[in-house]
Amino acid sequence: MIPSELRQFLDSTRPLLIGGEPVDSGSDGIIDVLDPATEDVVGRTAAAGADDIDAAVSAAQTALHSDAWSGLSPDERGRILWRVAEGLEAHAESLAWLNTLENGKPLSASRAGDVPAAARTFRHYAGMCTKIAGRSPQLVSSARDFHAYTRPEPVGVVGQIVPWNGPIVAASWKLAPALAAGCTSVFKPAEETPLTALYIGRILEEAGLPPGVVNIVPGFGAVAGAAICAHDGIRKVAFTGSTEVGREIVRAAAGNLKKVSLELGGKSPVIICADADLDKAIPAAANAIFFNAGQVCIAGSRLYVEEPVFDRVIDGIARIAADMRVGPGIEDGSQMGPLISRKQLDRVLGLVQSGRDEGARVVTGGERLGDTGCFMQPTVLADTDAGMTVVREEIFGPVLCAMKFTDLDSVIAAANDTEYGLAASIWTRDLQRAHQIAARVEAGLVWINCHAVADPAIAFGGYKQSGWGRENGWEGMEQYLESKSIVANVS
Ligand code: NAI
Ligand code: MG
């Protein structure tokens, strides 16, 4: 049952949150939020226009220099972040429901995955507030006469733009390090999933975050997103989403040369060697592509299997796919929910068709499921090769492309034959082989005998066109800090 506090929240059109105040009518109209399982409206939010972004930037600028925020000690800032984690847990059930209603994923995954992960991220960065430190280097040119030190300082007002595939986690990955660094934020959730962000806005308020430190501005990419990226009052944009929009953001950011960090698409290889523990590798490879209906930047979407075990692995994954319970996220036992929207469903089905046209064999799946909602069958394609669109493009759906390999050099070349470079996983019992492949794969994240292990302590981000910069870990914090060098003449 939908928690009653959530029912109340969904009863009225949710306002933008700017300077701690609700802004009832966004200047770009209203967003209808659809449940992808039914395509019914589950809630509404105001949509920010360029004027609202201006107001949000002003509020963030005021908050940046306010005593209420910049006057806090690192310890006090850390306490607020810790209270946010507690708030996320206190409202866990509402957040999980909201995540499932907006995004479609099984409620069990929202409960066990998204909400705890977001809380862990806030706790991790709560602890980092008190660990920010500069250095005191000795000058090369002088032994005694100078004292030099560095001062890490917040970058300033940051624009943060996230997609819909994991709205709670995305908010935590963006907001926690920015706040730990002392920045203020204009935060734009995806138009498909704006409600979770506004709900988190209430939790931030309850945790004692001063007004204007985080401004939440749901809106459309081409309007609100573009206004953030072009705004001269914003010093940095942190973006997660498509590579195509990432490129637009880089162009828009050139105006005032704002800093940019990008977490973009992927086409991550899963490499299964013949000596791997297949009882573990097979279900893990299935999960790597079918989790969240494949709408995951680190989805293991290209599978390379060593020839002697190819048939066994493909049969195993196909059996899991065919047995998978696909259904509404709020239904008990659902293992895979719908795709985010009709548009995404059509896009993914179109890509599968392009695979068929180019000679791929559909081992299982490949079709829409039912005639209500945006459900699709978990799909395995074989006889795919490096030239096919399905192997080159990020599909962002439950579609696996399976290929054979015979030797190490050729599988590494195939794994690296992509413009993306986000993640890879290797399955083998041979330690040497595992680390050799790990060293040679061009990816920001490599997993050995596991896939998609993301942790607040571990830097996350991509090589090549998968992005710029890293999230999580200390590396994630550095994205929000400038370094000032101070040199004093003490002679
Ligand atoms: P998108 O990149 O258009 O949307 C992501 C975010 O960017 C949303 O908040 C959107 O409002 C915003 N945005 C869109 N245009 C913008 C602009 N001109 N300036 C600033 N912000 C803008 O992704 P979309 O259309 O939802 O999905 C299309 C494809 O992108 C997917 O099929 C998938 O391949 C990829 N994608 C990758 C994600 C990842 O985590 N790597 C997440 C979402 C999508
Ligand atoms: Mg788009």
From TrEMBL:
PROSITE patterns: ALDEHYDE_DEHYDR_CYS, ALDEHYDE_DEHYDR_GLU
Residues forming the catalytic site: 263
Domain of life: Bacteria
Similarity comment: family membership: Belongs to the aldehyde dehydrogenase family.
SUPFAM superfamilies membership: ALDH-like
Species, as recorded: Elongatibacter sediminis
Identification of the protein by name: Aldehyde dehydrogenase family protein
Keywords from the UniProt entry: Oxidoreductase
Taxon lineage: Bacteria, Pseudomonadati, Pseudomonadota, Gammaproteobacteria, Chromatiales
Molecular function as annotated in GO: oxidoreductase activity, acting on the aldehyde or oxo group of donors, NAD or NADP as acceptor
Matching InterPro entries: Ald_DH/histidinol_DH (IPR016161), Ald_DH_C (IPR016163), Ald_DH_CS_CYS (IPR016160), Ald_DH_CS_GLU (IPR029510), Ald_DH_N (IPR016162), Aldehyde_DH_dom (IPR015590)
Aldehyde dehydrogenase domain residues: 27-486
